[in-house]
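Bumping my old thread because nobody answered last time. Still need a sequence for this structure:
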């Protein structure tokens, strides 16, 4: 991923939410305003007074060509684009709204703010009509999402639920997912796993049966943002951290240091990442920061997927072993470095480095013979060495 652009000072106060609608980018802020940005240039198009309180959520109903906004003042606005963005209805819920999620399968809007998940259907493309509620949690629901028609939710009560909205039946309950409340959820569509973040400063990966497969510790703060990137097959985590923390989804290895160019150099020492958003339609990740920024990352197939550090001296030659999934580098430090992907599987980011000696002067060339599975190196110490690749593993 590379930075496509940065919106600086997107609002006069904190940026609380981001959405893409009708070919434009929308941001909601603590200033009760929705701002509309040109999607390509990221230049401000228009500012719209939206609510009497902070704009906490933005969501799109693509099938009905509708934008929803919600606020801590308890209102939900329904917007349509008709020669400009216009409000067509306002719904009062009497709760401070913290999360919106549109279910395309059931054509309902999910609304959270307390322990219940409220459901609203959209009547005539304009008006929200109550369509029931789900009461599986005992404390504030902090995150809600939809996958294949099923509703996933996390709460301050520390639990995670997967619910069939047609029947209201709980399909999966993880009662004590964390030591503190669940603050964020993401879904890995490639492996059918749930990723949860918490106020306990941990991230966990769960199987579809509710078994904890991995646990990531050592974060410095509450997990405030969590997204799965299906393009690079990575988990992105924000925890009021100087940069998004990036984990390989298969191995759950921290690959942040191998992904270059993620953080803008401008004011880098002051920046803390707060929220993350993945947009499948554009295959872009967006993040908000304490500097009132919106940072947009996009996938670039021509950009290096990782940077590997070989020491103080530049490498002079490389070769690759397709049978062993290794590659090799040599250079002026007299070492042959074996780069070995973890679990003996190709991995875009992490290679385990294994430096080997054997020469007493800089190594200038290296070659691999796939028929004999041998590696040949040549050095200015006037020697040529032949090594069997299986032995080096």
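Sorry it took so long. Here it is:
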């Amino acid at each position: 991923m590379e930075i496509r652009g940065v919106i600086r000072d997107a609002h006069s106060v904190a940026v609380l939410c981001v959405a893409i609608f009708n070919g434009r980018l929308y941001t909601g802020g603590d200033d009760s305003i929705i701002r509309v940005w040109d999607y390509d240039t990221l230049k401000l198009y228009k500012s719209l007074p939206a609510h009497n309180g902070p704009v906490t959520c933005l969501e799109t109903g693509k099938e009905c060509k509708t934008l929803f906004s919600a606020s801590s003042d308890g209102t939900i606005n329904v917007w349509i684009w008709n020669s400009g963005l216009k409000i067509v209805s306002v719904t009062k819920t009497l709760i401070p709204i913290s999360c919106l999620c549109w279910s395309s399968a059931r054509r309902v809007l999910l609304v959270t703010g307390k322990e219940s998940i409220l459901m609203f259907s959209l009547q005539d493309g304009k008006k929200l009509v109550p369509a029931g509620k789900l009461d599986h949690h005992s404390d504030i629901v902090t995150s809600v999402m939809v996958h294949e028609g099923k509703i996933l939710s996390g709460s301050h009560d520390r639990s995670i639920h997967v619910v069939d909205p047609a029947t209201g039946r709980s399909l999966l309950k993880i009662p004590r997912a964390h030591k503190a409340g669940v603050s964020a959820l993401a879904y890995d569509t490639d492996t059918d796993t749930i990723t949860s973040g918490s106020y306990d400063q941990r991230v966990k990966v769960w199987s579809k049966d509710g078994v904890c497969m991995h646990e990531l510790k050592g974060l410095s703060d509450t997990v405030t943002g969590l997204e799965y990137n299906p393009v690079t097959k990575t988990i992105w985590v924000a925890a009021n951290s100087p940069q998004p923390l990036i984990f390989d989804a298969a191995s759950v290895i921290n690959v942040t240091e191998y992904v270059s160019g993620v953080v803008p150099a401008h004011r880098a020492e002051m920046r803390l990442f707060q929220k993350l958003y993945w947009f499948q339609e554009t295959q872009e990740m967006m993040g908000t920061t304490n500097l009132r920024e919106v940072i947009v990352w996009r996938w670039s197939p021509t950009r290096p997927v990782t940077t590997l550090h070989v020491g103080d001296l530049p490498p002079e030659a490389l070769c690759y072993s397709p049978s062993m999934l290794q590659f090799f580098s040599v250079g002026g430090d007299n070492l042959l470095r074996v780069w070995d992907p973890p679990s003996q599987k190709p991995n875009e980011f992490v290679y385990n480095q294994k430096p080997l000696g054997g020469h007493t002067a800089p190594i200038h060339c290296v070659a691999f013979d796939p028929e004999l599975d041998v590696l040949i190196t040549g050095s200015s110490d006037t020697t040529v060495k032949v090594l069997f690749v299986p032995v080096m593993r």
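DSSP finds one helix and 34 strands in the chain. Let me know if any region looks off to you.
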